[in-house]
Each structure stands twice: as C-alpha cells, then as structure tokens.
Design a protein that fits this description.
By secondary structure, the chain is α+β, with helices and mostly antiparallel strands. It has two domains: about 210 residues, Neutral Protease, domain 2 (Orthogonal Bundle), CATH 1.10.390; about 80 residues, PDZ domain (Pdz3 Domain). The longest helix has 19 residues. Helix 3 runs antiparallel to helix 4, helix 3 crosses helix 8 and helix 4 packs across helix 8. The protein is about 40% helix and about 15% strand. Strands 2, 3, 4, 5, 6 and 7 form a six-stranded antiparallel beta sheet that branches. It has a two-stranded antiparallel ribbon with strand order 1-8.
Length: about 350
Amino acid sequence: MEHRNSTVLSRTGHLAQVELSALGTVAHEFFHAWNIERIRPRSLEPFDFEAANVSQELWFGEGFTSYYDDLAMVRAGVIDLNEFTSRMASLINTVTNSPGRRFYSPIEMSMQAPFVDAAVSVDPQNRSNTFISYYTWGAALGLALDLAIRDRFPDKSLDDFMRETWVRFGKEFIPYEVGDLEDTLGDVVEDPAFAAEFFDTYVRGVYRDPAVPVPDYGRLLALAGFAFEDRADRPWVGNPGLEYGADGARVQAPIRIGSPLYDAGIEREDVIVSVDGTVLTDAGAWGRALARYRPGDRALVVWRSRGDEFEEQLVVGSDPNLSILPLEATGGTLSDSARAFRGRWLEAR
C-alpha cells in the first residue's frame, strides 16, 4: 500500500518464483510516489476515512501509473520487447473488445472504485460486461496519448506531460481535476485543440456511437515498427467461465454481450450439455468441440436453464483478439524512422 512518503510491499512465496511480478509491483508503487501521492486529484484530498471518496481521475492516477510501470521495466531491461508488446496487446484487447465501453467512460469507470476496488458483492452482478478497470483503460489511454504526442509533436512525449503535472500540482501539493489535466496537456504540446479532442473523445466519451471510441492503435504502433496480427481465422464463441461435471459445463460468470453464446441465449448458471453431440464433461471436450469449426460455421448447442432444456444453432464467430509483433518478427523491414521512433520511446534513459 502506497503512502505519502513511503510504500509497504509484501509478497507470499519465494522471490525467485515471483520476481517479475514483484518487480512490476515495485515499479507501480515507485511511480505512485509522484502520481497520486503528490500529483493528487482533488477528489482524494483530503481523504475521508468515513465515507466513499468518489474520484473521476483514477484512469489517470492508477491507469497512467500502470502504463509507466511496464514502460519503466522495458526501458530498464527488466522485461524484453516481446513481453512488453504482449502486455500492451492485453490492454488493447481488453478495452477494444469489452462491452463496458457501451455503458461508461473512463471517468465514469473511475467513479465506481468504491464498488470494485477490493469491494465484495454479495449479490450476482454483471460487471464483466459493464465495467472496465480504470487501471487497464487508463494504461491503454496512456499508451495512446504517448504515441499520439510523439507523432504530432516530435520533440514532445507523455514524459513531458507528466513532468509538467509534477511542477503544477505535485511539487506544491495543489490538487487537480480532470479539466486541469486537459489544460496542462494543451499547454505542453501548445495545442489546446489536440488536448480537447483527446479528452472529449477518449476520456469523457462525448462521442459514443454506441460505445466510447478507442484510439487507432494499429496506426500508432506502426509508427514504432509494430504490426497487428489478427486471429480472425480462429473459432470463437465467447470466453465463458465453465465448471465441468458429469452432466455438462455450468456457466460460472456472465456471458459476454455480443458473443455467439450470448446471442444463442445462454446465461450464467445454465448448463451447456453438448455441442453437436459432444458432451462437455471436461475442458478437453470443450476444446475438441470448438476445434472442429471455422468462423461462420453452425453448431447445435444443447443446454439446460431453470429446469428446461433448449437447443439452438449457434453461429461460430471469429476470435476478436489481436497480437502485437515487432515488424521484423513478421518478415518485414524496420524503416529508419520507425527504428528511431521506437528508440526514443522504449530505450533506456
């Protein structure tokens, strides 16, 4: 837990077994010494220990810190380029594919912290469909903003923005609000319109149609010589949490909105009995059943719900997730400009 002038970290297990994870925690809490402990939102200052502190800024306080903990680790050589791009792909996939963007913006996600950050819900809830962690979404926004600044303003970066927030707010303990961050960005890049467009589009979610937009990560990452590799040829019906038994697979978590399983009408606590005759008694049976199909194929799914049995011709979808690869790993040639861009972004300081 981070404090104003110190941090206490503890881990279970042997450090040799959790070294990388532990170093990630150290990097995160180290950056907190500036961001959120000194560069502090008004909503958390002073902190109220008797009532919920509802904050609109955790996408920045926690999310940008999460972006910088990975960035610091790759710059320091603790993780390699492949590990860093894998982590960035995870961020992008989570935000891009989550139905949560249809319901709330990063600001509104931040305001739900009293309900999700170490909070426990007694009743069933559907947050896997309606919520994206402000850590994750904020980190993805930090990535996009860093690359966008470097693209539009070659002598600037997110590092300059963070330094200026320290000067304006952290150094003198002056609490900030969302609008202050927008103004600071506009001043750093000397382009208030750029700052307003980024905040309105991606932070406030003003232009939802029907979901809050995501930045063009493909174009931004290409500037540094990275390429997207899609999985569109892989079958996908959703990512259900299943508990297997002799009578089938019980759905343990909400089904993702828009997935083939959701469109078929399957819900949490339903038991999926079989897929085209293959009884789902274990994870291997589920994997073998899916492996027979290609995107666009139809599969007869039988399930039980509330005492009744149903069957439906489910349309197999395409895996929506992407991988990020260095261009040279795909057989492409890294241009001089992309090599220089990548170096300015990721090499040690």
